[in-house]
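User: Some background: our group keeps a shared notebook of sequences we're curious about, and every so often someone picks one and asks for a predicted structure to add to the entry. Today it's my turn. The entry only has the sequence so far, pasted here. Could you supply the structure so I can complete it?
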Amino acid sequence: MRTLAPTLALGTVFLLDAVAATQTWPIPVIGILDEPAHLLTAWLVLASVPFLAGRTRRWVLLGAVAIDLDHIPLYAGLDVVASPGGRPVTHSFLTVGGLVALGLVVARWRAAACGLAFGVLLHLARDVVSGPGVPVLWPFDHGALVLPYAVFALASAVAAIAATLRSLSPPDMARCNP
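Assistant: Of course. Here's the predicted structure to add to the notebook entry:
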């Protein structure tokens, strides 16, 4: 089953994205489709890389979904936190940089802050191929970065292949950190 998990995760992400693309859904349905896809994408990337310790991995997974809490002010009618494309301005590299800076400055928060930063980065990677894109360079550039879904699909497939190959190696060889 460990060997099939990356393929199942990839297929589930593609299925969730395909369903999301079939029509304009109400916001709660979008969340039900989008958040598991973000979580599975982050898990897939983590399964493909050997260099993150277990504790940091939890923060990555949390960061991949928790960043969407920044949509709540928009739903409450506070459009001042939105970029012209409609995504919150916190969906930018500024948030990632702030979390990394926090991790560098406060050593005891390093694993949490850097894990959250990586999770947010993975979240943004999915968001640039969906909807209005992402204001990645806000506040320096208010435009939204939009890439074709094929870029995400290819990167996700590569991650799934790498994760599958890692799962085939003996458990003590599959990870660099306990």
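Suggested note for the entry: The chain is about 60% helix and 0% strand. Confidence is low (pLDDT under 50) at residues 173-178.
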